[in-house]
Amino acid sequence: MGRRVREPLSPPDTEHPGLIGLLPPRLRGLALIARFDRPIGWWLLFWPGAWGMALAGGAFARWELLVLLLVGSIAMRGAGCVYNDIVDRDLDAQVARTRARPIPSGLVSVRVAAAWLVALSLVGLAVLLQLRPLAQGVALASLLPVAAYPFMKRITWWPQAWLGLVFSWGALVGWVEVAGGFGPALWLLYAGSIAWVVGYDTIYALQDREDDALIGVRSSALRLGRQVRGGVALFYLVALAFWGAAIWQVRADQLAVVALAPAALHLGWQVLTLDPEDGTNALHRFRANRMTGLLVFLACVVVGT
C-alpha cells in the first residue's frame, strides 16, 4: 500500500490560515513548505540587506534594489525552508509542532519538494543577476553556510549563531552593491545583526524546548536554561553596541547614534515582557522583531542619507 497522505492543519504560528486554506491541498503543501503563510521569516532575512543599503546611502537612490532584495528574500527564504524540511524530515516527524509539515505528513513528496526548491532558487538567481559582479560573488558565498545550517542543531548548542551568519548575509550584499566594496561599518553592522538573530531565534526556540530535549536536538534556548531572558538581553545589548559602532563609523556624531533609541526601547520591551514558559508569548515576541528591523532600517536611512 502507498503512504497515506494526511492533509496538514494550519501550523499554530501561521499568520494567514484563511488565505492558505483556500488553496487546493497540493498547492497548500507547497505554500506551507516554503513558509509563505509566515512572512516574518522573509522580513527577518530582508532587513539586514536593507540596513546595508541604507547605511551605505542607497535607500532612496537605489529603491528598486530594495524591491529586488525583498523578492529575493521571499524566494530564498522559501528555498531555505524547503531544503531544511528535506534534511530534517525525520526529526520533524518526532516534534509536535513540526510533524504536520508537508513532508512528514505525506502531503508533499521529497521529489516534489526538490523540484520546488529548484524553482525558488531560479527566482533567487534572477535577482542575483541584477547585481554588480562583486555583490553577486558575495551572495553566492552564502550558499555553503546555508547548506550547512540544518546540521548545526545536531553538533552544537548554538545553531542560532550559525543562523545569524546566514540570515545577516544580506547586509554584506546590500552594502557592497551600493558602496562597491567593504568597510569597517559593514562588518560592525553584520556583527550586530548576528547577535540580534541569536537573540530572536533563542526566543523562537523556546517553543520547542521539551521536544528538542527529548529527541536530542540542541539549541541556545536549552543551553541557557533558566538564564534565557538574561541571555537574550545580552545578545540584544551586543547587537545595539555593534550597530551603534557601525553608525559612528559613518557619522561620528552622538545624535546619529541616538537614532537607534526606538529600536533599543523595542528590544527592551521584548526582554521585559518575555515569558519563557509561554510558547504563545515567545512567538509574539519573536514576531515583534519585524518592527525591530524596520526601526533599525529607519536609523540607517537617517544616518546614511
Describe the protein.
The protein is mainly α and 305 residues long. Helix content is 73%, strand content 0%. It contains 19 helices and no strands. Helix 4 packs across helix 9 and helix 12 packs antiparallel against helix 15. The longest helix is centred in the N-terminal third of the chain and has 25 residues. The N terminus is likely disordered.
List keywords for this structure.
disordered N terminus, Tetracycline Repressor, domain 2, about 300 residues, 19 helices
The fourth-level CATH homologous superfamily is: UbiA prenyltransferase
Mean pLDDT over all positions: 87
Number of structurally distinct domains: 1
Shape: globular
Q: Percent range for helical residues? A: over 70%
Distance from first to last alpha carbon: 64 Å
Radius of gyration: 19 Å
CATH-scheme architecture: Orthogonal Bundle
What is the tally of beta strands? Answer: 0
Order of helices and strands: HHHHHHHHHHHHHHHHHHH
Look up the CATH topology.
Tetracycline Repressor, domain 2
Strand content: under 5%
**Runs with pLDDT <50, length 5+?**
1-10
Question: How is the main sheet built?
Answer: none
**CATH class category label:** Mainly Alpha
Structural class: mainly alpha
Number of alpha- plus pi-helical segments: 19
